[in-house]
Design brief:
heterotrimer, A mainly alpha, B mainly alpha, C alpha+beta, A: 45% helix, B: Formate dehydrogenase/DMSO reductase fold, two-stranded antiparallel ribbon, 3 strands, globular
Amino acid sequence: MAPRFGVLVLLLGLLIGGKVYPGDTAPSRVPQPVVESARGGQCVGDPAFMRRNHMKLLKHQRDDTLRGGIRTGAYSLKACIDCHASKTTNSVVASDTNFCQSCHNYTAVKIDCFECHSNKPQVKP
Amino acid sequence: MKIELRPLHGSSSGFYLLLGGLALVALLGLTAVWYMEHNGHIVTGMNNQIVWGLPHVFAVFLVVAASGALNVASMASVFGKTDFKPLAPLSGLLAIALLLGGLTVLMLDLGRPDRLIVAMTHYNFKSIFALNIFLYSGFMGFVIVYLWTMMERRMNRFTPVAGFFAFIWRMALTTGTGSIFGFLVARQAYDSALLAPLFVALSFSYGLAVFLLVLMGVYQGSERPVGDALIAKFARLQVIFIAAGLYFVTVYYLTNLYFTKHHAFDRFILLDGGIYTLLFWVGSVFLGGVLPLVLLLHPRIGQLRRRVMACAALVVVGGFAQMYVTIIGGQAFPLVMFPGRQVSSSFSDGVINPYSPSLPEWLLGFGGVAIAGIIVMVVLKVMGFLPDRLDDEAMQQHAALLAVDNA
Amino acid sequence: MTPDASAPSNDAGDTKSGRRGFMTFAAAGVAGILIAPGVRLVEIAQAAPVPGKASPGASSKVRWGMLIDSTQCASGCTDCVTACNTENGLSGGTKSTDSQWIRKIEIKELRTGNTQSLPMLCQHCAEPPCVDVCPTGASFKRADGIVLVDKHICIGCRYCMMACPYKARSFVHSPQTDQKPDVPRGMGTVEGCTMCVHKVDKGEMPACVTACASAGHEAILFGDLNNPESEISKRIATYPSRQIREDLNLDTGVRYLGI
């Protein structure tokens, strides 16, 4: 009795899941992320690599910078923001189409960085 | 007429009314937490001078009472007072519930409660706070195992061992809680090794008082009998514990009176600290100490049962007052960086720091109490934790049975 | 930092590799011995940051400290405080919930009427009580002696604020916007004087020091306490400097003259 019921629930779940999963047919309810073009030239990594690994880079670089005082090297959050800040809002999270915010909205991952870090590029004196 | 552990019966409206009330208080507490987390601690009465406020008073009281609530079970399993054996499960349950309530308040008052996982994965083992995280979770583990050995018939023979370890861990926990303050060399109020044993003594007193209140309340509510002999035993214990607490408080202030460098602080708490002086003398010493002692020792005042309940309530009130004086009074008194000199600055140096608790803090504190209450009520209703009878006859037969078993 | 290659490895008992293993070990050892002095020289050279260049890393060869001459401190002067607020994006407000990383303290000896004024900031102790009590290790001491809060793992418990003998730390009570890009600050975390670590790592001096010097008061001196040739070390060797709450034996990085 119980195993049969479980199989039924599984099939039902797959059916519903198949409907919601963005395939090539049904339009998704979640707006696709808008990747605003950055200001500068080339990013420190190619988009596919950065999409997968930017969180790891951020997590380890932050300790090198803060605890080790190492400010050399390719990765710097300030540099990311300098490049990726929106030309209209001058920020990476101010509006839903800004660089960090749009993808993070799509993936429903809350960004914690900008509780503390400035989301605007550095104003060079 | 064997004493058996039974869940609470019936569907009395009083039970559900109380449960509903507690749930409402807990909900209000969670609302307060959401408000504080969204807007920041600026909506509370806490600031850069009084960094730990009313929620910490509630949390520390609950944690201290939690470790003391286990005492009844420890006396039964570890110290051979087998009369209390039927009450050991309730004691363990109360310990867990109070601890969970206190920890909830503590964790939800953090500046970043969303970083709880960070707190559980990054440890600085020199910090007594980090060690306390292990002490608290370990305590719950030990008590759960201890409860299991009591409830599972085949494991009953392990109860003394489990009880022993739970008792040792409980002593470590309360020492750790007292050391949170005792390890602070910076402040006049805390730089003292005496704070750990003080908290241990207070835990015995507060824990028993809360246990008694819950015991009497539940038995009255479920119309189960409780014997006078048992109550009298508890009353005698409460006297000893109140006296022990008063002893350590006395030694603490008397010693400070001997240190000229602490005179200003002692004067502040004992004489001209306003609310802190009032809470100390009237709340902690009189209501929490002298009055319950008089009530419990005097042969002719009131009926025994009501007397004991009143004393337990007074001890709890006195306990909150003592925690307020210790935690908040200790922060209200300024840091002494230039002894003997008058100091002033834009950052409240050299002045007594004012503090008035805000509504979100009250709601959070009582929310923690409510959560502890909900846990106790639900478990008692669903599982057999409570002896069905504790009247004198049943207790005597229970003692006789145990004597036969041990013979 | 490269590992010390000249330390002998625990290679005992592997008789199968025998000669090959021994040769590898010996070669590595010799190479290590040859390279090690060069590595150490490079380390020392890189230890102190060069002005204008990004820091290769904090090193314990250096210990940053300050010497504050309170006799040069005028009562009512708050140049260092203003500079700190501007540099770090603090509001400058003095409500009990506002952050103050540095403050001026006015001291009066009641018996004699003698008054004094000095700035109070994080003392960057060598044995910081705030580091001891932090449950997550967010309050930490960097290799070069600067005591910082790692706000990535700060949970906002405020225990460090209870423990600090100098009330150096502030708690951020409300949401922050418009932070300085060099100085992250966030609600729910604890913060304090960073000795302008973002400037120090570039070879510059903290804002309070620069402001005091350019205003002509010359009350704050900043430098490397480990370097006997630095101005601060020479002055500490010449004049009797004190630490605030010296009896706590915290070996502070900030010393005072005239107290």
